[in-house]
Amino acid sequence: MHPNQPPYYDNSGYQPEHNLYDNRSPYNIYQPYPIPPPNVSPVPQYLPQVSPHQSIAASPHATSKTWCSSSRKKIICIAVTIIILAAAVIIIAALCWYFLTAKCQKKCGTSSSCVQSSQWCDGTADCPNGEDESYCVRLYGQSFVLQAYSPAQSSWLSVCFDDWNSVYGPMVCQSMGYKRSSYYNYFLEPVTSDLNPFASVNTSVSFNKLYTSIRTRDYCPSGKVISLRCIDCGQSTKQASSTRIVGGTAAKSGDWPWQVSLQIGQSHVCGGSIITPDWIVTAAHCVEGRYSYAPVWTVYAGSIQKSGGLPYYVERVISHPNYDTETKNNDIALMKLKTSLSFTNNNIKPVCLPNDEMPWTSAQSCWISGWGHTYQGGSTSNVLMAANIPLISSAVCNTPSVYNGVITSTMICAGYLSGGVDTCQGDSGGPLVTKTNSLWWLVGDTSWGSGCAQRNKPGVYGNVTVFLEWIYNQMQTYT
């Protein structure tokens, strides 16, 4: 790390290799790829004119005699003032309650708008982009328990097996944003204490959307709830291991079948993870500016060789709307493919998106993979490399000796404080995964760090669990 570089966002190792296409770069060994010029909107350089608070001085001509001059009038004046102040306090308290409690009980996705809990999933779109009707069904925990949101109870209800019909599964998955063709199956899970309260399908009405077709229950007569698998994900030939692999080792075919190489002009730029036949998760910093132009990208899947794999073209690039290029907050993006991936062999498979309330813990064993630099300042690898690293709690990662408070809820740290094992340049956007309940789950996407594998500077990843609602909303919108 150069001493004149800033302490946290100096990690060129986590930036896409855009310098390959920059004529100003001394490392430009390729002809510039015909990328359209950036469509930059001018940012007005105006600051709001805020007048300082001005005190009101008494007029020099004001008379000392007022209607409050007498003792009785002074008492009346004080009493009236107290009443007015009390009324003002009551009004302010009422307004605060309305705006902070009633008005803004549920936030509308990434916008600043809010709605009441009773408006969430009530069948009417109240948010500007209809987010209040887009995340009304979810999968809970490592067993994929199906839950529907109840505005009446302002809570998520686990769906009982009672009155369930097998035809409902594909319909529910499609409403979440999956293709019906990717539907896997449903299973039954025993009722546990964390799954209260419950709901079941209301068979007296026609089944439309799950959350508008349920009735609440105090208990499940069958003692079973629905576990819904919208896609067969998280399958790999790799066996989980807690053994530390210093610096990483070469992957074998089928170990990380969700890993893809994102390329421009046949040059590797970033990594990504397959989550459905049509969608890839990567980092927002990989697709900043003109690199958000979908036609410049090609996704290569199914090979551990950087130059191998089957090419797939990109139809759409979607960055998180609240991504911050300076802090790397909300560093996640999606790519939608023009042609669906085929999961007919062990080399191309989706990783499981984490469900709500997944049991990630500090020191959880995870794996990173990519074709990035094998050491800081080095060159990219021709073969896919992988390494085993643990999660690090945000409390530890935010200590002064590590990242000094810059880790937000949209980020998750992983690695060794002693250094030696890390992601690096060219690994950006690639997966951080863990094996839980016999399946592989996408914990994070490679985001940033200070250098590569330095002491007290572990890798920082986008916290995928935080982005679930946004991911499903994009899948629903651009089916």
Description:
This protein is α+β, with helices and mostly antiparallel strands and 479 residues long. The protein has 4 helices and 22 strands. A 6-stranded antiparallel β-barrel has the order 17-18-19-22-21-20. Strands 11-12-13-16-15-14 form a 6-stranded antiparallel beta barrel. A 5-stranded mixed beta sheet has the order 3-4-5-7-8. Strand 14 and strand 15 (310-319) form a beta hairpin. The model is unreliable at 1-34, 37-68 and 242-246 (pLDDT under 50).
Strand content: 15-25%
Overall average residue pLDDT: 82
Q: Cα distance, first to last residue? A: 44 Å
Task: Give the count of helical stretches.
Answer: 4
Question: Radius of gyration from the CA trace?
Answer: 27 Å
Poorly predicted runs: 1-34, 37-68, 242-246
Order of helices and strands: HEEEEEHEEEEEEEEEEEEEHEEEEH
Arrangement of strands in the largest sheet:
17-18-19-22-21-20
Number of strands: 22
Q: Given the helix and strand composition, which structural class is it? A: alpha+beta
Report the biggest beta sheet as strand number plus sense, adding barrel if it closes: 6 strands, antiparallel, barrel
Shape descriptor: globular
The share of residues in helices is 10-25%
